[in-house]
Amino acid sequence: METEFTLNGSAVVVDAPAHELLIDSLRERMRLTGTKRSCDVEICGACTVLRDGQAISSCTTLTADVEGTDVVTVEGLAAGEELHPVQQAFVDHSAAQCGFCTPGMVLSVVALGIDFPDADEEKIKEYLSSTICRCTGYAKIVEAAQQALEQM
Amino acid sequence: MTEPIEAGQRHQRKDIVDKVTGRARYTCDLEVAGMAYARLARSKVAHGTLKNVDTSAARALPGVICVVTAKDFEHLDMYYGESVLDQPFLAVDRVRYIGEPIAGVVAETQAIADEAAELVTLEVEELPILADAAQAMTSTTLIHPERPVDPELANVCNRAVFAYGDVDQALEDAVYVHEATYTFPALYHYAMEPHSCLAEWTTEGLEMWSSTQQPHKVRADLARMFRTPHNNVRVRVPFVGGGYGSKGQAKYEPVTAAMALVAQRPVRLVNSINESFHTVTRHAAVVTMKTGIDADGKIIARDSQVIYDTGAYADKGPRVARKGAYRSAGPYSIPHTRSVGIAVYSNRVPAGAFRGFSTPQVVWAGESAVDEIARHLGMSPLEYRKRYLTERGKPLLGDDAPMDADLPQGLQMAADAIGWNEPRRAGRGRGLGSGVKDGGGGAARVEAEVHLHRDGSIEVVASTIELGQGPQTAFAQIAADGLCARFDDVKVRAVDTWGQRFDPGTNASRSTISVGSAVYDAACQVYLQVCDAAEQVIGTSERLRLEGPDVVAGDQRKPLVEILAEMRGLQPDWLGSVFATGVQDSTKGDGPLGYTSSFYEVGHSAVEVEVDPETGVLTLVKCASVADVGFAVNPTSVEGQDEGSTVMGIGHSLYEELEFNGPELINPSLVDYRVPRAEDLPREFHTVLLENRDGPGPFGSKGAGEGGTLAIAPAIANALEDATGLRIRDLPLTPERVWRALQNERAEQQDES
Amino acid sequence: MAPFELHRPHELSEALHLLDKHGDDAVLHMGGTELLLLMKLGFAQPGHLVDGKRVASLATLRVDDQRLVIGAGVTHRRLERHRDIARVLPALAVLERSVANVRVRNAGTIGGNLCFAEPHSDPATMFAALGATVQLASTGGERTIPFRDFLRGAFATDLQPGEIMTRIEVPLPPPGARVGYQRIAFKERPDVAAAVVLDGAQSEVWVGALAARPLPVPRAAEALAASAGRDETAAAEEVRTAVLAVDTGEGADYRAHLAGVLVRRALDGAAPRLPL
Q1: For B280-294, what is each residue's pLDDT tens digit?
Q2: Rounded Cα–Cα distance for residues B557 and B414 (Å)
Q3: Would you kindly state where each structural domain of chain B is located, as residue ranges?
Q4: Residue of C nearest to B670 (CA)
Q5: How far is A91 from chain B (nearest CA, A)?
Q6: How many domains does the structure of chain A reveal?
Q7: What's the predicted TM-score (pTM) here?
Q8: Which of A94, A126, A133, A141 to substitute to test the interface with B, most B CBs within 10 Å?
Q9: CA B722 – CA A119 distance, rounded (Å)
Q10: Other CB atoms closer than 10 Å to residue C237's CB: what's the count?
């Protein structure tokens, strides 16, 4: 079946079986490998993409379920060489080590900025508890999120 | 050695833009033309003699290219491991744990491979199941009958003993003997990226892409197993999404290469996280310690035994047992010790290397015991440790290197960071601990190359894997300083065994001081060559610096390419690079481990906890970690590593535990395996870098990255005792465990009154 | 995941017709946060998914001074962020905020949660305590039953073949009544939860997450009613006793104790019901 949606600002059509998961359409069909598969049970957030500005787990979303929506993956954040403020904040605070959680974590902070632009440190930690990082211990991620919220 | 200019700066990571944009690629992201997809079928039986693996239904599925079992590889050497090569890449005559690979499916799509793997059936004659080390130690069933027999226990994979002085006599002479048993759970590393490999047999030989920490060792393993020369095997490593020890030596490379061989197609195997849980774990441990003190309170004797459950295969179990035994004595220069470390097989998931490597388990016991002793003496745990921690320059154990750190200084810094002496609120307690492990980098000879291209750009070729700890940045800083060049002009290449120098592996906190030293050496050699050339051509090399394409020396500036052209008498177009191979050799020296330890990795932890007596929940109000790193090449990266390792340690202190129903792992997913999240961060969280320039690496650096895992658990348990008077000797300190301990204590108090 | 045919009705009647047509080979698909996970794990392999997300009537949400009328297709996110719910029933808004994680809340629906009947479900405990009713539609018509009767056990409801839950109606206690909810989770799912409604003779105390379905503790409610909400100790003790009677697993004494603690804390945090 065909699914029409906007992906990173461009109209796309994906012709895939109904049971295809969004993460597989992105990674295998469209070769957008920034979105990662880790826990596969909707907990870790490595597969996070935005659908109409809301974070979803692409590992447990049918491609069909983004029909008519606006999907943003990590590849759609930067404008050419200019990084999104969240990405820049992660760079400034060195908020990534192995980097495997980073696309999902960056998108989670983007979503945080949409959902709770005035979030304080406690709210940031609560919200970002939806996404797992195993390397950084979160300290620099929280700092980056604070900077990003100020700038968004 | 000159003073650092680029080293020591908080330079932006070379890879961070790629990581925040999603451009960074990991093994699971790689794709080659004609690639096929793999899935392993795994045993659902914990222990049994393998009668038959029926792959007929799997092979019949349309889109399946081949299904392989051990029978297809009788001409190969199927076994791998670290020192004990007891693990076949597909079960041969036995299955030994639930989750063990028994067949490999290769198919045109991942979905078909997954479906086919479910169709493989296993016929097994069941053997008695040894659910854990305790059961295995006394059983007549042997999981590895081929292993040497231990004099005392059954199913021993390895036993190590370190003994100094006369511990039995010293314990008899002791004024007070503290004795206790401590337990530590099995854990999973939960690297975000599951184990992944991509293999292809080409005219060049075996091309292997893998998420591995030890590519050269993997190359050697593959060569041996496939009976092919080293020069016929190439291992390349893209970015790795977390290792922490879970991706050491061969894991899935042999089976992926085997499938690619039979399929005659490139094959990519990306395990699920569930499968990664069933690959390698941290050893559960039971530690018994008898510690005797003299009339002054000094520890004069320690008799300890640590039993590590190494699961169905050895993996790094023998080394863990050995290191754990060695480190059981702790950092108090105890004159009389007997330290026994035993790795015992069981029918559980194999256990191997995990950040801290044997030591969190024995420090959990040792730093809890020291606190209990201090309390017995009525001494402050901080003052007790400051008095008795091994002093700088004094022997630590046997004739190994003397202590190279100022331990009391570091511990005091941790205590200060949480306001140790400040008045504290009711319901709160404070605790601390010091963990020491002999650092890696000993008994190795490693090399690295630095290439200075004629345009002034610099390439570093060094076999340290970028797992997230930042060598691509740190080595660029080190090389820049060796060359008196700019950080921005230096690039560190990804690791490739083809044409790159051997390195045993990215582990043991060894890379900065071993490979990093070789990088610095190479850079310095290149610098000298440039100085030579400059003197010949421009007559000076005074305060020579490289600035992009230019050489600047004395009051002159000239493009490097012109200097080289003139010196070599060649057209610029015909000029190669200036390069050198640097060496770091630590093979000399004798010590109890067979070599002299190159440095000591030290981690001090101090915490303030709040106990909710109604629920048993422990909240970390304050947490400080002091990483004694000698010199931080990139302070931001070192902080990040220490923060990460401390939070990982908080994980095993409060939340993480692999749960087994007999031999079966029942929580192989984040649903029931609880890793730390952002909301678990201590309210005040400090990482302090102690830089006394007293390490063997460039600019006095030491290794780092594991210290945070060592003493955090006993620090928390010590704080719990401070708050409640309760001593708990089992991890993790879950709310239920704490609550029960409080209940039992209340009951006991009521009984007494 | 096994292949299936995806249907996208725009009207409820169309959706019901499709369920009838394909019988037990069809299932309603909304957020997918439970269903797709089950299908990925191979526990369910329906040949037909009926996507109800385009049926507008399933996603209505109405708040007035007497009740909440929540379309079964309303996401946790909408409940968490709805200003009127935050005013009249803050315990529900806070509860919704703690369901799973933000991504699950963005996609998952309240109807999906209640029909899946996971024993750890927070909303189930709250709706049971509040005496919610659920409306179920089929090609044969509609019926309304109390949520307490709808929920039968672990993963078991009264949902009949061909039925779709269309909405949940939550009567609000009168202004001044106090509603509180507390939960504790040691891993991903809550381990123990407590919902308390302090409303004179209509008081309710329910314990969730630790049994097959939410557990009412009428004697605790009576103790509270008799003491105008003051005798928290008696209520907690009744709760503890009630839990021990049904929870015989390992660690039951701890969970029973926690249930009592959470009831007390739910009471302490129970804000008086504000008018809209």
Answers
A1: 999 999 999 999 999
A2: 49
A3: 16-23+444-585, 31-127+210-227+236-241+246-263, 363-438+597-747
A4: C188
A5: 6
A6: 2
A7: 0.97
A8: A94
A9: 35
A10: 16
